Amino acid sequence: MLQYVVKRILWLIPIMLGVSFIVFTIMYMSPGDPVTMVLGEGATPEQYEAMRIQMGLDKGFFEQFFHYIKDVIFDFDLGKSHISGRSVMEEILVRLPNTIKLAVLSVFVASCIGIPLGVISATRPYSKTDNVVMFLSLIGVSMPTFWQALLLIILFTSTLGWLPASGFTTWQQMIMPVTALASSSVGTIARITRSSMMDVLDQDYIRTAKAKGASPVTVTFSHALRNSLLPVVTVIGLQFGALLGGAVLTETIFSINGIGTLMVNAIRTRDTMIVQGGVLFIAFIFSMVNLSVDILYAYIDPRIKTMYD
Questions:
Q1: Coil, strand or helix: which one is 65?
Q2: pTM for the model
Q3: Are residues 34 and 98 in the same domain?
Q4: 20 or 241: which carries more pLDDT confidence?
Q5: Do 106 and 238 fall within a single domain?
Q6: In this structure, are 108 and 55 located in the same domain?
Q7: What pLDDT was estimated at residue 108?
Q8: How far apart are the C-alpha atoms of 160 and 178, rounded to whole Å?
Q9: How far apart are the first and last CA of the chain?
């Protein structure tokens, strides 16, 4: 297991290099001038050129990329914001708690609703209950998150006046962002749970447990659910990583001071260091989440652990 974990961590190096190169290339080729954003339109040519040199923009593409990667790998330095002058890592860490809180709450709510719905559908296949659950799951998966967020604001803020439309401090402020993000994940988790459970319920050992007189609750939860959790855990991990990146629009709509809002503002102001650092940080978190899910497999299914021993 330790050898596997070390190998996966080493694989992060080429993954991070690839992500860095793609994001750096996109930002380098994007229209707009960060120097003009910093100095404004009234800067003199001398000031403009001095700022270009100070920001390292006078160098070629590969030289700029090499210096950026060298700072990231050897100094763990993501650079400084062109606009605020603060460290990119500092800017990210200030906003990270809100983004993590939003993603964790959304995945928790989605799992608490999606797994039971999937179990109910699997134990009543092709019934009216199953059709209703799958229909609602399809709606949740199909509706864009930002559209759901706007509908929630129109209904609960503009029309009913029950919930605030911005912020992420009180539980009232958390309800709509978490609901908007969790709704699509609920449908995905429910459908995967149903599919996995139906496969397990057809196995011989399930029929044996029923023949021995085990209660339906014991068969469903002690035998079937546990053995169907691997794909469910996989999709929950992927959903968590997706929510970290997908929270960009949700944070912007609800004015949540998170990494998503930081990156949107950075794109608007051509703050390339913030964009590159933010994407690299989210890619690293996503990779670590996938690694954690793989390690969790061994504790859910002991057969997998023997593959590493």
A1: helix
A2: 0.81
A3: no
A4: 20
A5: yes
A6: no
A7: 92
A8: 19
A9: 6
Quick one: tokens of 40?
């404004």
Q: In sequence order, what are the residues at sequence separation of 6 or more whose Cβ sits closer than 8 angstroms to the Cβ of residue 300?
A: 226, 229, 230, 233
Query: 76 burial class (0-12, 13-18, 19+ CB within 10 angstroms)?
Result: exposed
In-domain check, residue 108: yes
Digit-coded pLDDT (tens) for 217-259: 788 877 788 788 888 888 888 888 777 765 777 888 888 888 8
Tens digit of each residue's pLDDT (9 = 90 or more) over 274-305: 888 888 888 888 888 877 877 777 676 666 55
Residue 282 in domain: no
Burial bucket for residue 175 (CB in 10 Å: 0-12, 13-18, 19+): middle
Q: Are 65 and 24 in contact (CB under 8 A)?
A: yes
Find the domain containing 12 and state its range: 1-75
Which pLDDT score is estimated for 154?
92
Q: Are 103 and 67 contained in the same domain?
A: no
Instruction: Kindly state the tokens that stand for 8.
Output: 């996966």
- Angle 122-120-188 (CA atoms, 0-180°, nearest 5)? 75
Both 58 and 122 in one domain: the answer is no
Residue 113 has pLDDT above 80, yes or no: yes
Q: Which two tokens stand for residue 101?
A: 């809180």
Count of domains observed in the chain? 2
Say if residue 36 is in the same domain as residue 167. Answer: no
Classify residue 195: in a domain, yes or no. Answer: yes
Longest dimension (CA), the chain: 87
- Phi/psi at 80 (5° precision): -120, 150
Helix (H) or strand (E) holding 3: helix 2-29
User: Where does 155-228 have alpha helices with state H?
Assistant: 171-201, 204-211, 216-217, 226-227
pLDDT at res. 251 = 86
Whether 21 and 134 share a structural domain? no
Residue 300: per-residue pLDDT: 67
When pLDDT is averaged across residues 32-46 and rounded to a whole number, the result is: 74
